[in-house]
Design a protein that fits this description.
Layout (H helix, E strand, L loop, with lengths): L1 H15 L21 E8 L2 E8 L7 H4 L5 E2 L2 H8 L7 E5 L9 H14 L2 E5 L1
Parallel strand pairs: 1-4, 4-5
Antiparallel strand pairs: 1-2, 2-3
Length: 126
């Protein structure tokens, strides 16, 4: 009888212990691979740098598309976090035109480093 109680206690304990572990960290869903890579744009508003990262296409984007609220990344941290979601091997083309510009060198280095760490191929064009 003592063996049966010990066995049942062991089974019961084994059933409850897995639920006592630490909570799993949420995973960041990666972006899809893009045949045309990704397009990155940047501009300054006041003291803040804004960014837009879009799926690449064969056509030029309008400023309205680039600065659309649903694609704008509010700061450097948001851009870096977004770049980390892109699958390795993807091209990222950073362009400047019209009222768009490139941020200071320290921000450019951060972007370059994240792209390198992620295995992204960064092209910077004027």
């Amino acid at each position: 009888m003592k063996i049966i109680r010990t066995l049942l206690f062991g089974i019961l304990l084994g059933a409850f212990l897995p639920g006592c572990g630490t909570a799993a960290q949420p995973t960041v869903a990666p972006f899809a691979e893009s045949m045309k890579g990704y397009e990155l744009y940047s501009w300054q508003e006041g003291d803040q740098w804004k960014f837009s990262l879009m799926i690449g296409t064969n056509r030029d984007k309008t400023l309205e598309e680039i600065k659309s609220a649903d694609v704008v990344l509010a700061d450097v941290d948001a851009l870096l976090a977004t770049l980390e979601k892109i699958p390795a091997g993807q091209y990222v083309t950073w362009s400047s035109k019209e009222t768009l510009s490139f941020p200071p060198q320290d921000i450019r280095r951060q972007v370059e480093q994240v792209c390198k760490d992620q295995g992204l191929i960064l092209n910077i064009t004027s």
